[in-house]
Structure formats: C-alpha cells, structure tokens
Amino acid sequence: MKVGFVGLGVMGRGMASQLLKAGHEVWLWNRSPRAIEALVAEGAHAATDPLKLLAEVEVVHSMLANDQAVRQVLLTPPVLEALRGKVHVNHATISIELVRELVKAHVAHQATYVAAPVFGRPDVAAAGRLNMLAAGPAEAVAKVRPLLEVMSAKVWPMGDLPERAHITKIAGNLMLASAIGSMAEASALTRAYGVSAADFLDVMTRTLFAAPAYQGYGKMIAEEHYQPAGFAMALGYKDVGLGLAAASAEQVPMPIAGVLRDALLEAMAAGDGELDWAALAKVAAARAHLQQRGKA
Amino acid sequence: MKVGFVGLGVMGRGMASQLLKAGHEVWLWNRSPRAIEALVAEGAHAATDPLKLLAEVEVVHSMLANDQAVRQVLLTPPVLEALRGKVHVNHATISIELVRELVKAHVAHQATYVAAPVFGRPDVAAAGRLNMLAAGPAEAVAKVRPLLEVMSAKVWPMGDLPERAHITKIAGNLMLASAIGSMAEASALTRAYGVSAADFLDVMTRTLFAAPAYQGYGKMIAEEHYQPAGFAMALGYKDVGLGLAAASAEQVPMPIAGVLRDALLEAMAAGDGELDWAALAKVAAARAHLQQRGKA
Amino acid sequence: MKVGFVGLGVMGRGMASQLLKAGHEVWLWNRSPRAIEALVAEGAHAATDPLKLLAEVEVVHSMLANDQAVRQVLLTPPVLEALRGKVHVNHATISIELVRELVKAHVAHQATYVAAPVFGRPDVAAAGRLNMLAAGPAEAVAKVRPLLEVMSAKVWPMGDLPERAHITKIAGNLMLASAIGSMAEASALTRAYGVSAADFLDVMTRTLFAAPAYQGYGKMIAEEHYQPAGFAMALGYKDVGLGLAAASAEQVPMPIAGVLRDALLEAMAAGDGELDWAALAKVAAARAHLQQRGKA
Amino acid sequence: MKVGFVGLGVMGRGMASQLLKAGHEVWLWNRSPRAIEALVAEGAHAATDPLKLLAEVEVVHSMLANDQAVRQVLLTPPVLEALRGKVHVNHATISIELVRELVKAHVAHQATYVAAPVFGRPDVAAAGRLNMLAAGPAEAVAKVRPLLEVMSAKVWPMGDLPERAHITKIAGNLMLASAIGSMAEASALTRAYGVSAADFLDVMTRTLFAAPAYQGYGKMIAEEHYQPAGFAMALGYKDVGLGLAAASAEQVPMPIAGVLRDALLEAMAAGDGELDWAALAKVAAARAHLQQRGKA
C-alpha cells in the first residue's frame, strides 16, 4: 500500500521503518528533513511538504509531538482538503479536546480519523513491538489494521469512537506516572530506614510488581540513572496535564494525578525537566532531605 | 524441630500447616481455640496458654493481628522471661515503634527477635508460596531459615536489623495501596469517557502492568466484586497508617500515602470497611458521581 | 470624561453606575442589550457595537466573563485598531496567558492596557466599595485613577506590569478558596464530634478569623445556605484553574490548590455547579458521610 | 480561692500570673522549679510535687506540653486519688483519645474534668486576653468560670462534654495551619511573577483577610522572620497530627490537613523544626526553587 508518515521523531522513525520493512511504499515528511535521511536511504520517499505527501498516499500516519504541532501541521484548511477520502491514523498522545476537533474536521472533509496511540518506548517502536490501541469507524480500522500490526506486538481494538483509544492511552500514562511516583515515595521511606532503593525495589519488582513498567523505571531509580531520558520529565508533565484536562472536562476528581503534577513541576523548577521522569525519585528524596541527613 | 506458632488466623493457619507438613513438631496457641482444631487433627499440639507453648519449643513464630495483640500476648514480663534463650520469629505487620520496643525487650531478656514479614494473601500462605523478608542476627536467621523456606516461594534476606524487614513490608504495602488507588482513579477517568474499567484494565494488566498485584486487584475492580475481602479496607487503612507513622518518625513526606489515607477513610465512613480494599475504585467512582450520571 | 464600559453583568453594572453617578459621560455595550436598560434610563448611552462605543470614548473599561469572551469581543483586529491611542482598563479575572497576549496586542496598536482586577461581590460593586488593584504604564494609571477611585473603597497600585495586578487577584482568589475549603474541612471534623458548624465557626470568625472573607462564607456554611450563589462553584473552579495554569507556567507547586480543584470538580459532578462555592462544605460533609451517620 | 497550677511553661506562667493578680492563693508545680521563681517572688506558693499541691487546693489548672507529659504527671493512681472531689481544669491541647481516658479516670475517682483549651500566643496569655473554650459539667464550669475569666478576653462555653472544647481547639489550629499554608502557597505564586510576599500580603491582610491570624503570620512571612518562634514548626506538626488522629477516629477525610502534614514534615527534615510554623512559606518557596531562579 502507498502509506504516508508525518512526524519522524525517535518514535516515528522506528514505526515507519517497520512499514518499510513490511514492503509498503512509504512517503515521509518531517519538519526537519535530516530526521528522514536514514529511512530514505532504506527506500522511503521524501515529500517536501505534507500536501505533496498526501497527494501520493491513501493512508497517512502521524506521530507529532503535541497539540500545537498537530494544529500547525494538520489542522489547516488545505491539509484537511487534501485528506478528503483518505484515512488518517494518529499515533500521538494529544488532548481529548483536540481529538474532538480533529474528528469533526475530518468528518466535515469526508476524511476518516483513526486513533492509534501506542504504549512503548523508542526501542520498542524500533523493534515493531508496540502495544497499539485502535479506535475509529470499523471499516477504516479494518483497512489499516495490517499496517498497525506490522508496528505492534498487539493491536487492542477500542471501538468506534477515537477518543476512547486516546483516553485509554492518557489514563495508562497516569498509571505509569503513579507507578513511578509510588516507587519514588516508598523508596524514600525505606532509605530513611537504611534500606537502599536498589534493595527495596529488587524485592518488589521481582515479586508483586514483576511487570515491565516497574522493572524498567525501578532500575533507573535504583541506579539513580536518569540520563539520557527515555521519556523526559517535561513530557511526563505534559501527559499528566492531558489527564487532568480530560478529568476536568468530565468532572472526575483525580487526587493522585494532582500530587504527581506538583512533583513534576517541582522537578522542572529544580531544572530537571530534561531528566527521565523516573527522577520523580529525586524529588521525593529531596523533600525528605535524605542526602543532607546521610540516608542510604 | 520443636516449633511454636502463636496467632492462627487465616494467614497463620496456612503457614503453620506448612511447618507441620515439613515434619516439625508444631505447638499452637490461639486466643480462640477453635481456629486450631483442624491443625490439631492433622497432628499439631495445642497449648493452653503462650507460656506453656514456650516451655515446649526452641523457636516460636507469631502472626498476630496488630500492635495491640502483640502487646497483650507477647510484650509481658512472664512471656519475655519465657522467651529467654529462644528465637522469636515475627511474621506480622506491626509498627516500627513497636518493633523497636520488641527488639529492646528481647535483648534485655537474652531472647532473639527475627523479623519475617510476608507478602501474599491467605491462599498463597496455604500453598507455602509466600514471599518472606527476613532480618535479624545472622546466626538466628540461619537457624530459622529452613523453617521460613517451607512457608515461602522465596526468602529475601534484609540484613541484621529487624526494622529493615518491617519497613520493607510497610513500604511494599504502600506500593500496593498506590497501585489500587491508581487503577481506581484511572478507571474512573476512562469510565467517564465510556471505556469500562474491565476494558481499560484488561489492556493495562496484560501489557505494562502484567504483574500479580495489578492482575489480582484489577480483576476485582473490573468485576466490582469486593466481597469476601481478601484484605479488608480497614486493614488497608491500618497498614497505610503504619506507613504514615513510620514516615513521620523519620520525616519523610508521603503525599500519595496521604491521598490514600483519605480515600480509605471515606470508604470506612461510607460503611465499606469490610470490603476488600480494591473497593477504592468505588470511592473514586463515587467522587465522580459516575453512576448518577449514567457513566459506564 | 467620556468613558466606555463593555460587559455589563452584575458586577459591571454596579461599577458603571458609579462612573455615571460621578458625572462621567458613560457609553455602554453588552452582548445582551437588556442588561443596560436601567443604566440608560439613568443617563448612560447605549452603543450598538464595541466599535461604535470606541469611537466615542478615550477610556474603555471592560468586565467580561472569561477568556473566551475577551477574545471574542476585544481581541479582534478591528477592535484593536479602534483602541489605538486609547486606554483600556480591564477589570476581569482572566488567565495570565491572555493578559500577555493582550498587552502585546495593545502595544502593537499603540493602545494602553491597564489591569484593574477587583475584590468584592456584586453588592460591594454596587456600593462603589471595591478593593481594586491597578497596574500598567504609570501615566495611564494616573489618568484613569480618578475613574478607578469612584468605584472603589481603595485602589492598590501594583506597578507597571499589568500581569502583577492579575496574578495578585488570582492568588487572592486561591486564598479565598483555601479559606472556604479550610472551614469546610475543619467544620466537618467538629460536626463528627457533635459541635455544629454554626457553633464552631461562630467562635472562629469572632476571634482569630474575624475577617470579611471568613465571616461571609462562614455564615453561609453555618446556615447551609448556598443559593442564590454570590459566586458560583463553577466560577470558583474557573478561578482555581487560572491559578493552577499560572502556577504551571512558572513551575510553582500548589498542593492546596490541587486539593481545592478536586473538591470543586466533585461538587460539579454532583450537580452543584450553580451553588455558591461555600458549598465546598457540602463536599467535605459528603466525604465523611456525616448526614448518613446522624452527625450534627 | 485556693488554686493550683501545674505546668508553668511560657503559656502557663502568663495564665497563672493573672490568677495571682486577681487575688487568688495560687500554688504552683513545675518539673523544672526555675520556671516558677518569678511567680513565687510575686506571691505564689511553690509545691514540691503535684500531690502536695493537690493537698492545698480545690481547683487545679494544668497546661502541660503534650499527651506524654499529661500521662506522666497526672494520669497516675496517686494523683487521680488526690483529685477526688476536686475540679481539674485542663488548658492544654491534647489528643481526643487522651481526653476520653482522662474523663473516665476522673469520673472513676469522683473528680471533675473541665476542658478549657485556649487560643492565643504567650504575649496574649500574659495580658490575660486569651480566647478560652470551656466544656464540662455545668456546675463545675460555673464554679471555675471566674477563674477562667481573669485569664481571658472571652470565655466560650461549649457544653457539657469536654471533648467538644478540645475538638474545637484542634479544628481551630487546623484552620490556622491552613491559613499559613495558604499564604505560603499563594505568595510563592505571586513571587514567581515578581510580586513580593510583602506587597501581596499587605493587600490581602488589609482587605479580605484583615484578621489577627492572617496579619500576625502574614507579617512574619513578608519579613521572612521566623525566629524566635512564637509557635514552633514541631508543635504545629504535633497539632496537625492531633487533628488527623481525631479525624481518623471518626472517619473524616481531611485532604488539606494531609497536605499541611507533609509540608511540616518537609520543614523538619530540612532542620527547620525550631522555626515558627509561619516558615511553611519557606517550604513553598523551596519547592518552587524561587531563590535559585532569582524570583522576588
């Protein structure tokens, strides 16, 4: 199939490379063209702007950084016009408010919006082992499903309404933030009693919490190794903010998310916005002044 | 070995039965004697009071309900006297403050205190598959280790200081409470958008959160099935309280634990103290008035 | 002076009436013209649209409901063009983000933006007894100061930068919300022990907390009298949201504000968005299930 | 009247001096006798132990530091025996749990317990201008009321049940902590925007918050002047703890109190336990890293 991919950051590149390997004719556009050089060397086609890309393909994937990028690149009259009759698969984590605007704009232009947000860090994307949620009109989902599957360990159908896939992704990220925040807080406690984060989290992540989320972040906390960031504090703050905004729109109190928001803000105020969000453990330790008190 | 076991609630019975199966001569005492009838039928000996039990054994295990029970049954001058020269293995989750008192009292009576708190619900105890932390003087731990192993999937050594095993257990329970609270809050959000807790948690607990803690409690939340309680709300409140007290004693701010405390109190105020603490999901849904608003 | 006033809600009407009484020639525009009939009967002039109003006056006041109204009515190219050379005094509580946009747009059109947010409920506005903050270019503030004074018990100069007056207003409203939330929580506690909110708050608001904010809201809580709303829950939620957004933009953790956010959301989820925000006391009582337990 | 006073800290000394000035025969006992020298020089009598004091008087006041001191000094069999037939007026802020024990013990010994906790700092006590709550059996309260009045600006009757006066005091202190916490948080926000705490709190404490609690603590925050402490962080932590314990016993969620608990712990972890609890503003500023970022 002739497939487009817009937004070739570190996630997008891994995903697009799987489409290419699967034998599709892949057209790429990225704001900074350098990001696509390697893929072009492997056989992808470079488009000079999104409109030219849309002229070539019947399905376009996007993995843009945030709401603002989606608005600038895709939510413009000419792009919407160029999407007419095509399927747009959005993999990015964006606000529910923007999802609703996008769905309306696609309908108004006889284009089809499929939500396909993903769980997985860049190495997982590069390996084609993402967990991918999928929601949208059944016929469109069926059409793009083979494309989704080449990028994924598993595709999780979430029904007809795109926002249901997006809210699932947003809620899942809140669970991730909570898991990190919980390890941060609990290991600050054990450290105050002389049990290192490494010893504590070793027990926990090999027993009750023997799950990828805990093992990956638990290792970073145990080693106090927060750079380079797989997922930066500032991105975590953005995603917790998407959760709180979605909660607000439907009146759902979320006190744990509120606590995480403050811890993320505190990290950014400390100048740690570029660290991996596992560094929430640094915030918990700082609040307890563990280092100054000579605690493990 | 001649081994005693004091406190034969649903956890203690499962643990003592493993000692019995392993061929030890097991002496039992429980406030209500009915609890030990089945074990006696299988070959255990019944003691009419703790002192008589201590006269028979060289190692005594205890699994009493809370601080108050430990104080009443064990922290008395005659019992401490009877412990002289013996090893006491405490499996219960008690306050750090009481642990410190117990250690002092044991030392003063030439008795040895070994901390061996456990992770696992009653069915796990009955199967001899607990995860057991162990801390205390090395020689004593070495002596009782074979006893610990017959009750456990794995024994995790935590060093010489008993309180380190206890704080690890307490911090671990805070992580469990956080995991439940996080699923509660996140699934309230997805439900407000039409994604059921079952659908949402199915994705999460089969991917990033594919761990026993999440799968067990996630199932209860998905099915809204909170009775009979494996671990009641009121016990969860007690354990979060132990965490907050330990945090207070060493000046460790724990905002997520504070949020959980309030949610547990709210459940108890609602008369739900006897439900499993997975019913934190009921609190999150009530705060968002999901049912009244016809949300999934 | 020829003065305009845009946005004649219940606050704006009281304020404009003071300008009129002081002898100024007052031009009015409001989306719904009925709101200005009484003032026109007292001598004010009605403009059929904001542009016509701006053609008549040298200073224009605005008191619009929220960011969206300000964007629609004032932040448009023709209105900005019509503001050239004039002073715009904004009394409304709006986001810092919008303040910054407004200031830039005014500068770009050689118009002057003066921030003059107010403390005081409608009856205080009608009596010309507001507390009014004022910030903007010194010359412009000096020019409009006589106008501000006729509406105010006191004008509080806050310097040259308009956002400083706005952040002061926003932070003040967070203090109000905290005061209400604190009375709500503390009186839920006393009620659980048989001391009514009335008895408790009577002591507090006549001693340590003998201040208008506590006495006014304390009375509403004591009487459980939340309608008609002087300031509705939904407006409170909006203002706490402005505070959290401002905190986010400058990385200031605000955990009390986060707690208030959740309580306000819970009230709105319960269908109480139209009650006065003093009904935070209803949320605190509901969480403790006081009524079901027969507490005072 | 022959009156005893036990516990002559800085509050107790001021209170006892008023009894003396009013012409009563005042007997004193304090653990450290130096604290009573000045009062003895003014005519008070020194007792060498609490039992000798009780032998002389018909009413005894106590103002001991905390639960532990009350237990050690008063809740002993000989002292309870010596209280038989007498009235004990307790001015201290203690736990509701201990209040209930004291009431039972007094009843068992035909002694009468009157609760008379106070609002006011040491200078207010020395001036005889406290606000004093009073609860207990009506006859006893009537008998001691003249004594209470010489120490107070006003005596607030709270009925027959002593715990109602105590819970009112505890809830009042939570309101004070919230007021400080709210000023701390709100002024951290304004400072991030260039409005000093002094400028911000000047507006607030002269308008909506023109009350003693806000003006006193607001001044300390504005001046960042936290020593010597009128009421130390560690005492504030104790009192918030009494509030949370009372809330727990009657299942009342108190999220704002939980936030304050963490901030107080953070201050103590930082080594600031001896500062006045107005230094909660220091915690809020530290979390936002205002100083490092050069904010006002």
Automatic annotation (TrEMBL), chains A, B, C, D:
Ranges for domain 3-hydroxyisobutyrate dehydrogenase-like NAD-binding: 165-283
GO MF terms held by the record: NAD binding; NADP binding; oxidoreductase activity
6-phosphogluconate dehydrogenase NADP-binding domain boundaries: 2-156
Catalytic residue positions: 169
Keywords: NAD, Oxidoreductase
Alphabetized Pfam families for the sequence: NAD_binding_11 (PF14833), NAD_binding_2 (PF03446)
InterPro entries: 6-PGluconate_DH-like_C_sf, 6PGD_dom2, 6PGDH_NADP-bd, HIBADH-like_NADP-bd, HIBADH-related, HIBADH-related_NP60_sf, NAD(P)-bd_dom_sf
Keyword NAD: yes
PANTHER family membership: CYTOKINE-LIKE NUCLEAR FACTOR N-PAC, OXIDOREDUCTASE GLYR1-RELATED
Name of the protein described by the UniProt record: Beta-hydroxyacid dehydrogenase, 3-hydroxyisobutyrate dehydrogenase
